[in-house]
Design a protein that fits this description.
Layout (H helix, E strand, L loop, with lengths): L1 H32 L8 H8 L4 E12 L2 E13 L2 E16 L2 E18 L2 E13 L14 E11 L6 E7 L5 E12 L1
Antiparallel strand pairs: 1-2, 1-8, 3-4, 4-5, 5-6, 7-8
Length: 189
């Protein structure tokens, strides 16, 4: 009879421990489901949950000679915050490197823009690479060694809204010409 009592005692104790284990597990899961009492810094929450904003960018590359505007080219793109965009217009020119090997040069206009966050501020970063043939006839015939002239304007600034802003300007060292990169940013609704 003592063996039966011992057997039943072991079974009851086993069930009791098994039940406690399950209760402990359930309490662990219940605690995990409760919201954390730790708070994140306000800036981190705003950055994580800040809604995406859309912008329209109008670029203008203006050419001046002796202070008078002689040419202007317009480009535009739409861009979301924390994203980048690129406008690329031009020609790929083959240049012979050696026996049947060619390298391709991009000749034309390449504008890249990015709108992002820096220290809680919305910042516009722009880069423009502009190149053309120093002698326009080179583009019409296949010259193994074309002479290109190029300039690059780039910069970063707080996001200007609604008014034209000059990102940068350069003087052409071979003439009295000056080139300016201008941008106007409007917020889309």
């Amino acid at each position: 009879m003592s063996r039966k009592i011992l057997f039943y005692s072991i079974v009851i104790l086993g069930l009791g421990f098994g039940g406690q284990t399950r209760i402990g597990f359930a309490q662990e899961n219940a605690n995990a489901a409760k919201p954390s009492t730790q708070t994140e810094p306000v800036d981190d929450i705003r950055t994580k949950w800040k809604p995406v904003e859309a912008y329209h960018l109008d670029f203008s590359i203006n050419e001046f000679e002796d202070g008078k505007k002689i040419n202007s080219r317009q480009y535009s793109t739409n861009l979301n915050s924390n994203d980048s965009s690129e406008i690329k217009i031009g020609t790929r020119v083959p240049v012979e490197e050696g026996e049947g090997k060619f390298e391709y040069l991009d000749v034309g206009t390449n504008i890249s823009a990015r709108i992002g966050e820096q220290r809680g501020q919305t910042v516009l970063t722009v880069r423009a690479d502009i190149s053309n043939f120093a002698v326009p006839e080179q583009g019409e015939k296949r010259d193994p060694h074309p002479i290109l002239r190029q300039f690059r304007i780039g910069g970063a600034t707080l996001l200007p809204l609604g008014k034209p802003m000059i990102i940068g300007s350069v003087d052409d060292p071979n003439s009295k010409r000056q080139y300016q990169l201008e941008v106007t940013v409007t917020k889309l609704k």
